[in-house]
User: Fold these one by one.
Assistant:
Number 1:
Amino acid sequence: MATVLIAEDSPTFRAPVAGYLRAHGYNVLCAADREEALRLLREHHDVGLVVLDLLTPKFDGADVLAAIRSDAATRGLPVIACTTIDAPLQRHTMRHDVQAWVVKSRVSLSQLLGHVQRYLAPHSTP
């Protein structure tokens, strides 16, 4: 079963996304802060995709992304960047580091699932 890590500080976004992905055949891990996200990536070698909140009061998503890209074990992981605002300059800067960019207020669960499915089949093996 494919595993998705959701690195998101807000339970009001994290919980519905996690439940929806689980209902569609994905194993889901959740992290509410930077340290937890990086720890889960180190401990769970089956993570195949990260849904990463970029703008949080608890951690800097760009910092988590940089850590993912600098580690040989996680460098190639697909990342879906989530944010509360559309930031064209940030999107342009990160265009080579993320596979998709979504604005939380504009994305439905089914659209987010579509992004996940594009990069990670629900029953693939790592």
Number 2:
Amino acid sequence: MAIPSTTPARPGGGLADGLITLAGTPDDDSSVPAQLRFITRIAADLLPAVTYASTTGQQKDSYVTVAMSSAIALAVDEAQYADEAGPCLDALQAGAPTVVPEINATVQWPGFREAAHRLGLRASLSIPLFAGRGVPIAALNLYGHDTGAMTPLNQAVLIAYDTMDGDGDDPESDHDRLDPGSRELLDGLTGAFTVRATIQQALGVIMVEDHTNADFAYAILRSRAAAMGLSLPVAAGSIVTRAGEQQWPD
């Protein structure tokens, strides 16, 4: 029985590679900040509907923009931090995408609305990003000038997350209708979900076998991966495979 193919792609590839690599990297790894900068930069360059991009992270009790493609994105982020409210904070806290299809029409976040409108932005999408532990560590914020151009991307990302939760339509149904950059973003998200699912399965196996909780199981997985010289996804895949072979022996 083969180990599931969840090896992270090489950093520095495309947007999909970057998202998949991040999903298989330990949260406190020294490469994470550089990975977030890469994802932010390439998202701004690759997605036609997106004018500016940034990434919001959390440091202790405050929020900070850890990467940005423009000072305009930073200004919109900081308006949200000042109010302690906004789509980027919602995405990071809830672990689900936050879509603002028409910024001018939103009443939920007045500080965000006023700052974004003043700077010419009309729509936004904030997507939670996660590393190896599987919990959100940042939110990728995508800002656009054209509400219509952002709509297909917004819908595709929402469908991808609904499908991950077992609801919604098959994301493949609209995949070919998207521009190449948006398809790459969707491929990266679905690939990252696969990596996370494998790691979470492995943590479940360790929790049962070692009679421990999720935090200790994650520490055990990291220790085993380091001892074997493997990435987290490959080490997790080997654990899941072994557990399956024990449950269903030949």
